Write the structure tokens for this entry.
Amino acid sequence: MSAIDLPTATARLGEMIGEARAILPFTGAGISTECGIPDFRSPGGIWTKSQPIPFDEFLVSQEARNESWRRRFAMEDEFSRARPGRGHRAIATLYRAGKVPAVVTQNIDNLHQASGIAPEDVASLAAYCATLPHLKLRGLMTIPAPQSSFINQRQPFHQLFLLWQFLRNQYGSSVDTLSMGMSDDFEAAIAEGSTLVRLGRAIFPIIP
């Protein structure tokens, strides 16, 4: 699609979305920059501070793998503070409208997941996954809105635990992962049955 100006392009994009039966978004780092997470190539981006680690080097070098994980944990504070931006919310709106069956992303900031799938749609999504021969559903994950109260922190985790138990009853013990809880709320998540928490600053020092 090309257009001579932004309003024309926006109007045409809206028409294309309205006409489409299904849309498959492909997203990268750019969708999360407005959320405070730097991309790779822009001024001040990640690759202006650290050289990329080639995948073949990652596979053969323990040092490269250690450095890759060090960089990941160094960004934990930025990830934990970030909330879905306009792009994430727009895709979530299209999902709720039945236009987007899935999202393909290379991002590791979890913001697409944070923008969410409705709890009432979990069962149908799991049933669809079960029809795909090369895809295995391992569990569920949530990143709820921050809460200062331990009791309030537990509520969304309890809801996800019940959904996870439902899936385990349907599909067996292969649904073995309930990923919930980060540095600020992992204790509440564990109390509600989390099998996987994501900790950064709670156990690792902040690396400048």
Remarks:
- The two ends are 42 Å apart (CA to CA).
- The mean pLDDT is 84.
- Residues 80 and 208 are 17 Å apart (CA to CA).
- Residues 119-208 form a domain with the TIM Barrel fold (CATH 3.20.20.10).
